[in-house]
Amino acid sequence: MHQPLGYNTGTVKAEQTFICRENHLHLHLLERCIFYFMNKKKFAIIGTGVVGTALAVLLEKAGFECIGVNTRSHFSYERFRKYLQREHMELDQICLQADYVFITTHDGSIETVAEKLTEHKRNMKKAQLWVHCSGSMKSEIMCKDPSLPVNYLSIHPLQAFANIESALCLISGTHFGIEGDTEKSEAIGETLVKILGGIPHRIDPMRKTLYHAGAVAASNYLVSLAYLAVKLFGQAGIPQGEALESLLPLMKGAYQNIAKVGLPCALTGPIARGDTAVVARHLQEMPPELLDTYKGLGKLALELGKERKRLSGDSYDTENLAKLQNLLI
């Protein structure tokens, strides 16, 4: 093959070899760091709620050692001791002895706990890893003194746990959002999640708020969506209890379609068909307080509908598309 003027095959190959060796060395060092850290298995729990208790039980089963817990709640501590008989431990001793410190308090208390831990920096165990499980807070909020011999990690389970028993059953197979202060921290996070039986996903810490908003939309707002549908059924004369009972199979069917064929192909209904007359009647009779919500959901449905048709080599009729867009403004 004719090469451009000045092209030196030997030089390029040498550069490629150097890059490959450099990448291999980097991966080798990272693997050694992870191996070293995963052999350090002493951990402490700060905040003995549902997630903290479940993590402690599962990590103990995986061969880690819970050296103690710290909590302000007598009730949650006694509940924790029904699963693991561990002593209450002061923060200075946690700093001195633990390899992993799991801060599983409410989101609003994470920074306060980190500040209190930082006060014991003179007796801090080297190469300690502080971990929180918040979906909305970045791991960096735990760093109150950059000089500490500590790394920071967040592992957030994408699951709603009603109680400790459900958490113990559900964590295996749960997807986790992971972000940390270094690549090593994130790699350790991935390993920890896999040990728990979960599925790790690295996320951009700078966009973590949007990640959490997505989780809220998929979980909390699904409940709101059910409430919206129940209210509309109520307007048609169906009592709330009967309305929810009749809507759940419909919602389950939609979920199963998403699981089976994915997005956008799971979309059905009047917007998917381009049925402007039905959408117009909905809007004419929609209670004013629900109109904006319906339109917002309709716009997203139209976005899905266009992509669904594109994938099948089809498209909306130009006139119908314009009508739908105008109706949803």
Helix and strand content put the structural class at alpha/beta
Compute the number of strand runs.
7
**Helix fraction bin:** 55-70%
State the order of secondary-structure elements, H for helix, E for strand. HEHEHHEHEEHEHEHHHHHHH
Report the end-to-end length measured between terminal Cα atoms: 58 Å
The parts where pLDDT drops under 50 for at least 5 residues are 1-7, 12-20
- Overall geometry comes to elongated
- Give the biggest beta sheet: 7 strands, mixed
CATH class group of the largest domain:
Alpha Beta
Strand residue percentage: 5-15%
Largest beta sheet: strand ordering: 2-1-3-4-5-6-7
Average pLDDT reading: 91
Rg result: 26 Å
Number of domains: 2
Label the CATH architecture of the largest domain: 3-Layer(aba) Sandwich
CATH homolog superfamily of the largest domain:
NAD(P)-binding Rossmann-like Domain
User: Helical element count?
Assistant: 14
Q: In the CATH scheme, what's the topology name of the largest domain?
A: Rossmann fold
Question: How does this model look, in words?
Answer:
The chain has 329 residues and is of the alpha/beta class. The protein has 14 helices and 7 strands. It has 2 domains: 41-217, NAD(P)-binding Rossmann-like Domain (Rossmann fold); 222-327. It has helices at residues 9-38, 50-61, 74-81, 91-97, 110-118, 164-170, 183-195, 208-218, 220-235, 240-261, 270-273, 276-285, 288-311, 318-327, and strands at 42-46, 65-70, 100-103, 128-132, 150-157, 175-180, 199-202. It has a 7-stranded mixed sheet, sandwiched between helices. Strand 1 (42-46), helix 2 and strand 2 form a beta-alpha-beta unit. The longest helix is centred in the first third of the chain and has 30 residues, at 9-38. The protein is elongated, with a radius of gyration of 26 Å. The N and C termini lie far apart (58 Å).
